[in-house]
Amino acid sequence: MNLSRIWATLSLGALSVGAFAADATATAIDKADTLWLIVASALVLLMTPGLALFYGGMVRRKNVLSTMMHSFIMMGVVSIIWLFLGYTLAFGKTANGFIGGFDFLFGSGISMKDAYPYAPHTVPAGAFMLFQMMFAIITPALISGAIAERMKFSGYLLFTTLWILLVYVPVACWVWNPDGWLCKKGALDFAGGTVVHLASGVSALVACIFLGKRKALNHEPILPNNLTTTLLGAGLLWVGWFGFNAGSALAVGDLALVAFSTTHFAAAAGMISWLIFEKVRYGKPTALGAASGLVAGLVGITPGAGFVGLPESVLIGFLAGAVCFGAVSLKSKFGYDDSLDVVGVHGVGGLLGAILTGVFASSAVNPVVGDVMKEGGRSGLILTQVMAVVVVGIYAAVISTIILFLVKFTTGIRVSKEEEVEGLDLALHGESGYNF
């Protein structure tokens, strides 16, 4: 299989042999591939309202609308940021491998007929841009679960705006731009283990520590207002994740089928694993545990969805469910208030999945694995994966801390005690989620 064919069949995150990217020749647009990417983009966008339902059901009744707004508002804010500046800095031609150029500034030069110019995709550049935008939308929304019920809406908007530009966009360039420095080093991330889940999970940890604990924590019951909503949201996430992972093949073919299949089996294994450990530890398997477990499995398989086989996907999902369950159980011991378990599920799951991708990635599933392993073999690939998660984790933590300080001294970051007691729905939005 020649390099051009590899480019055409790999995911956006598997573009790990970037040396030949600049020489990529024009590729004919395939209507079937284009249709699939449009459908996949819609599925990924569906994940954000799904996340709103997932998070919204887990908070107290007085904060349900404010929590859901954290996800919904990203569909507006990030879309404009992405078109005007984010996309070009992530996927524009990069001279240094750290940040893209201004090829597509303000949406210019994004063709709706011709392919992305720096890799032989078989879909129009406009479709690729929209697909990438859906990833950018949901990623900062993931962070919101860690700071739910206590962050100012204005502070959240400023934080996420700066975070997209200063954390997400550079990391996306490093890993997914054909000339990104981590991409060239052979780091494998099929659909966002490091770019989406690790970066958001680490930033969520920093944010919830920076804000401090909710006033009611350890003083009064903090109970979910509607777990049926959470289950519905989890179901939508499961369905939308097929677009997330299988869409990252960027084409209709065997790689999309592999990613679709591994995604499903990992989610199933993650749910079963979480419920087993929950039953052993607490005596009862819960609906919230089922929802959390399937999401953990989905997070764990994301970086390797197009690199591993079906048996390995089940193992990855099972391990993700078990490890994330343990991580969530330990948060009280470490003393941070991660409201909706973003750190334990997305941060830990993304880290675990990225490393397990190095362990289980197979050239029989995806030819790029063989190319990446030519120099360092299996151990070299694992070390590269570890390096990627360490670098991305440290970068996300440092820049997120700086952004939080900037927000604190501008818009302010935390609501007053009175507003927190009243509930953010009424205090910040003048609305109530439930008017019975």
**For the record, what is the CATH homologous superfamily label?**
Ammonium transporter AmtB like domains
Mean pLDDT: 93
Low-confidence stretches: 1-25
Please give the largest β-sheet: none
Determine the strand fraction and express it as a percent band. Answer: under 5%
Distance between the termini: 63 Å
H-E string: HHHHHHHHHHHHHHHH
Number of helices: 16
CATH class: Mainly Alpha
Structurally, the number of domains stands at 1
Secondary structural class: mainly alpha
Form type: globular
Count all strands and give the number.
0
Helix content: 55-70%
- Give me the CATH fold name: Ammonium transporter fold
Q: Which architecture would the CATH scheme give at its second level? A: Orthogonal Bundle
Please give a quick description of this structure.
The chain is mainly α and 436 residues long. It has helices at residues 3-9, 31-56, 64-91, 125-143, 153-176, 181-184, 193-211, 227-246, 254-282, 287-301, 310-329, 331-334, 342-360, 368-408, 417-422, 424-429.
